[in-house]
Amino acid sequence: MSGPAGTAPSILPLRERPAWRALERHRRELAAVHLRELFAADPQRGERLAAEAAGLYLDYSKNLVTDETLALLQQLARESGLAERIEAMFRGERINETEDRPALHVALRMPRGRSLVVDGVDVVAEVHAVLDRMADFAERVRSGEWRGHTGSPIRAVVNIGIGGSDLGPAMAYEALRRYARPDLVFRFVSNVDPTDVVEATRDLDPAQTLVIVCSKTFTTLETMANARAVRAWLLAGLGDEAAVARHVVAVSTNEREVARFGIDPSRMFPFWDWVGGRYSLSSAIGLSTMLAVGPERFAELLAGFNAMDEHFREAPFERNLPVLSGLLAVWYGSLLGAQTHAVVPYSRALARLPAYLQQLAMESNGKRVTSDGRPVDYDTAAVVWGEPGTNAQHSFFQLLHQGTRLVPVDLIVFVQALDPVGEHQDLLVASAIAQAEALAFGRREEEVRAAGCPERLVPHRTFPGNRPTTVVLGERLTPEALGALVALYEHSVFTQGTIWGIDPFDQWGVELGKELAQRIVPELRSETEPDLSHDSSTSTLIRRYRAGRRRGAADGA
Ligand code: F6P
Question: How far is CA 472 from CA 57, 61, 297, 438, 484, in A?
């Protein structure tokens, strides 16, 4: 029997894999062990349980694992066919089985001159041809050579897109703002909430604005509505359609729809169906990032991605950052019952990273059947959430320290500040390191008493500890570091999906809501009372909205 694309032929269901069974037994033995004991028993643990690649240092020593746990998790990876699956991805096999295509985002960051032939086409050569076009365009806009219809240079860029066509660009712009041209304004419009598009454009001059419509399919409801709204705004400001054309470019895989929308294909930057939306930051979807930081810095971003890709492909599992991160996520989510996973970047510039990772992890692995359609009998993706530290410490860290739930936390820290100010960076980094220490070791009752705490407050002031954290430490948030960081999470998610046997590259779960909305739109808008055949809750909500809409129209709203 041959297995699905890229898997070894004889992969057992997860619960039947010997390593899984051993891990189930092992977790009972480990339940009574505290991180205090693990560190006391092994003075080198903090140095030993760490790995480094592509400029990132991963300290995973404060996780609820022993050497045996790690060995079993790595054995589980082998029994799950991870090595074969990684190779299949890098070779361009159709590992996205339900959509019958490769998941080849790693080709987007392969260096010029490398060759990867898929279905007779050298995809790396195609990638670099598009990168060259993007670079040429970005240089022309940044230098002022590319002029708007009235002859003004471009001063503002509006990126329209949603999901993977927004979260990556918006996250990367915030992350790399210190490297961006200060005289160019960047706005990101995603939601179909009309306030989004109004806020993004209200203070911009259409004559100086470039609009990038980013959509893999070029059919997404929100993006198309926003693209039409911004085109109308341009038209109102510039007068005629021909003028508008100079101010709008597209990034898409769907040339036909781009042309139908009225954008000349010469103003379209393509990518390919083998790039998933949430894996598309390193494709032409990153055009806004390139416009902000310039082609050279964008190349550094891609080099960072590529360095982590190569590491993922080549490093043995015991030193492989994405593999270790992915295995820990499986350990907590499927074996220890953690329902969520927090990501806390100690960097304001990474404020949008948790939202970006939510889509990456939850759209990829939030699935309840395996690739071949069998229901899973274990938990898959955790709920990913987070906020930058130290802000997070003053909101939800109480629960992390003393609540009842197991929440593994990733703390992302950089040595150098982007903006050195007084002692800020030392305070920031001290806070991150202290949180990991406090979460792991806590404070015992006897220590609390010894510090003179009144007896009635002792339970309140005791910290149980034994709460897992992983620290990702980088030197400085450069384009390269950002690429490596994003690739680390991409491949961690891939590792998790492989263990769980699910297809991390499809997203059928978003379809039903989209379809129902298409049916409800005309019901909200029809002049005559529609014949509603929904459940009573849905129909009542529709009627209430229609009544409110009529009131609004009568009031001239
Ligand atoms: O609704 C989910 C989704 O399909 C995401 O996977 C994707 O990133 C987003 O919508 C946007 O899709 P598109 O780039 O085709 O507009």
Answer: 6, 12, 22, 17, 11
**Measuring from each residue's beta carbon to the nearest atom of ligand 1, which residues come in under 6 Å?**
162-165, 215-217, 220, 223, 277-278, 363, 507, 510
Q: Counting every residue, how long is the chain?
A: 557
- 439-449 burial code (b ≥16 CB/10 A, e <16): bbbbbeeeebe
Name the one residue in this structure whose structure tokens are 């459940």.
535
pLDDT at 242 over 70: yes
**Of the candidates 258, 166, 259, which has an alpha carbon nearest to the alpha carbon of residue 218?**
258
pLDDT tens per residue, range 148-198: 999 999 999 999 999 999 999 999 999 999 999 999 999 999 999 999 999
DSSP 283-308: TGGGHHHHHHH-HHHHHHHHHHHHHH
Residue 50 has phi, psi (to 5 degrees) of: -150, 155
What average pLDDT does the structure give for the chain? 96
The DSSP call for residue 476 is -
**436 vs 411: CA distance, rounded Å:** 8
Residue 186: enclosing H or E segment and its boundaries?
strand 185-189
CA-510 nearest atom, ligand 1: 1
Give SS3 for 530: coil
Choosing from 363, 387, 490, 523, the catalytic residue is 363
Kindly report, residue by residue over 354-410, the tens digit of the pLDDT.
999 999 999 999 999 999 999 999 999 999 999 999 999 999 999 999 999 999 999
Tokens of 234: 């341009």
- For this structure, is 216 an active site residue? no
DSSP result, 78-124: HHTTHHHHHHHHHHT---BTTTTB---GGGGGSPTT---EETTEEHH
